[in-house]
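In the current project phase, the collection of sequences with tokenised folds has grown. A sample record is quoted in full directly below:
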Amino acid sequence: MKRPTLDVVAARAGVSKSSVSRVINGEMTVAPQIRDVVMRAVHELGYVPNGAARNLVTRRTDTLAVVVSDPPQGVVSDDPLFSAVVRAVSRELETAGKRLVLMLAESDQSRTRVVQYIAGGHVDGVLLVALHGTDPLPTALARQGLPVVSFNRTSAPDVPYVALDNAGGAALAVRHLLERGRRRIATITGPLELYEARERLDSYRRTLRDTGRRSIVALGDFTRASGAEAMRQLLEDDPDLDAVFAANDLMAIGALRTLRQAGRRVPEDVAVVGFDDIEAASYTTPALTSVRSPMADQATAAVHLLLGLIDGGPTGPVIMPNELVVREST
């Protein structure tokens, strides 16, 4: 059998050859109904694009890099939500007909290798995940002239980003505790080199300051162990506290363990709110009240922003809304 051509696909789909070409090349301007009929024709005919020839014409690789810039201990990449992010990104890229390259940047040497790989023209764009505020990688990649989108806010002013409404989410949590009649509300922060951790802490302080209450702060690093230890410190420093807002659910789960060991009832003695609403939040004892972060939606928005940039679209930024999911811990 002869290999089906673009003309044959266009005839089967009942659309123009240029429409088929745009769908095959993953352009986002094609109407969904056109994309559906073209892809149906592609599958029926077994059409396989000549990737090498197309890349010579378009000067594209149809490959996007997801770069995870995280310390060796894996502050973010070990988070349960990280796998949801990667799945959502992979799903969106597959729909767009793009390939995914996942790269980890855990040291100066690995960051250098990432920049060299990107500079070599192997990808059409980069999605950055888990960046620290002082990370040099965003600026280094932006200098390569490729579209770059960050999964969070960065120190590089020219890098567009898709971020959660960290300040709004923290304010939701603290206001909820205030409405429950809590008077001594503590917080357990994430690592303050991360923008999201600083934004959640600043919002916690601002919300309490507006009501004339003082801040009670313990440092964590987004892990269960740090949440448990921070909760121990808080109880030692202020035995009368009656609520705690943890900057993520893993630390909140650690705090619940410490409170249970200390004989404190939740929520009767101490109410607890987390952030992220991971799956485990609904299975803790008691079930954890948490700020739901639409991480899969954030990943989808980041991919769409990056694909749009590749096609000359707008640069963002995009801020994702969140909501409070109230459970037994408050």
The two ends are 67 Å apart (CA to CA). The chain has a mean pLDDT of 87. The first strand starts at residue 63 and ends at 69. The first helix runs from residue 6 to 13.
